[in-house]
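Running low. Invent one:
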Amino acid sequence: MELIIYLLIGAIAGFTAGLFGVGGGLIIVPILYIVFTQLHYDPSVIMHMALGTSLATIIVTSFSSVSAHHKKGAVLWSVFRHLAPGLILGSFLGAGIADLLPSQGLQLIIGFFALWVAYRMFKGAKAQVDTSKQLPSTAKQMLAGSGIGIASAIFGIGGGSLTVPYLNRHGVVMQKAVATSAACGLPIAVAGALGFMWFGAKAQVDVPNTIGYIHVYAFLGISLMSFVTAKLGAKVAHQLSPAMLKRCFAGLLTTVGLYFIYQGFSKLF
């Protein structure tokens, strides 16, 4: 029965990711939080498990995405190589920071982040890219990668919400920014998931079917179904208005953000 629940979550997350053109992390994390709560897992580790498991599933789904973008020649592999070391280091470090934060603290951080992403999407904050701008030095790109990696691990996402704006700001056109961001999601997910496994093992999480902060059944069920349904979501997306899709997703993220903020503050007071 539990595995069926995770297969359903994967179906929803994959379809949503394909439909809205974003990674499923901000969908997977709140659903897993609710499911883990209903299963009466230790409240102090539920958010950490939702984040770690979300990152682990992104490892699988990112392969499909990167392959599709690479075939179109849209991935800037030179930029990827500059960002990757920072992304790997930052993601592992981000998992360690998340391990130190209490559950309600993580809820508040993710809640406000979801509202920020929703605001950007609703406003369609995609100003015309100034292609005359150049990417900064390799050292600065590595430093930026570290920041993106830390934040992505704490939010349980593949980093697209952060990498795309960064690349846009430095003159990379949207198509190549999205493709390169998809490639960057893989080192973020791998290093972040390993970090959550490592720090979770040290914390000795007393929840069945887990490796550190990663729930094995949830990882398998979500990865399997999201890989399949993402393509279906992408097909449906082509039949709908992009502006309407953005507004719908912004509304969904606003709901997620307000839910986590409410949960976080209700436990503080």
